[in-house]
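Quick one from the shared queue. A colleague (R.T.) flagged Phosphotriesterase as missing a structural entry in our internal table.

Convert sequence to structure tokens.
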Amino acid sequence: MSTVQTVTGPVDSADLGNVLVHEHIFVLGEEHRENYQFDWDEDEKVADAVRDLNELKGLGIDTIFDPTVLGLGRYIPRIQRIAAQTELNIVVATGLYTYNDIPFQFHYTGPGLLFDCPEPLVTLFVRDLTEGIADTGVRAAFLKCAIEEPGLTPGVERAMRAVGQASVQTGAPITVHTNPHTQSGLVAQRVLQEEGVDLRKVVIGHSGDCTDIDYLMKLADAGSILGMDRFGLDVLLPFEDRINTIVTLAERGYADRMALAHDASCFIDWFDPGAKRQAVPKWNFRHISEDVLPALRERGVTDQQITTMLVDVPRAYFE
């Protein structure tokens, strides 16, 4: 057992219950909102999020891991308002989300740069994990970085190595946004391992977007957790293919290397809400409880294997 920091305080890892390992509450460009979203109603958006999360709790999910970090609009005071109105545990992250470049706040500052100093990203990540985020008193519990189709750009590599170094210093686990079609999970494993990271503490996010069993087994055999975490995004991979992949891996003994989620959100400003509902009607927090778990059971995945993916794997991630 170990202590896991949540928005409302520490909990024992044994008390996390059923966990969805990759969900967002808000994905929101705050600078864009302040300048262009003049119809924004903060109270309404918070109430909608509370409703969604309480509904999720009613479906038997006890905890979500929210990897909304710098680059995705992390704003903890809003999340604190929401957490105070739900019994669902919300575990937040630190890190940097970029597919290409480092933000200009760090572009000229760091080892060997114009303003030569120790990596400031590591300093900030460690502070979020050990002291708290801003002045909220909320501590991050895990780290997040990304590697997408552009691959290991200089900015992506710098962010990833900073995440790895912060993980080694603090013991915090990591989730990585990856693109399985470019097999970028293998690149992430290599870079993080070079920084001394224990790959058993790494979720290779969005692994469920592909059906390449050999690739997924290679990631799992190296120790990492496969994030089968985009249920509802059928435009990226159809529902049946996602189910088939989990069934095949479970049959081969990999239930203890998989974790489930939707990568959904209460609000995201990347898409028009109406168009989003029409394009991906199942991309919501209810989908796993209402559709995915019954489909897995129908295909022979046992209740014990489901418990492993929902309870045991997320718990071990922190232990």
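Residues 42-58 form the longest helix (17 residues).
Residues 180 and 210 are 6 Å apart (CA to CA).
Added to the table.
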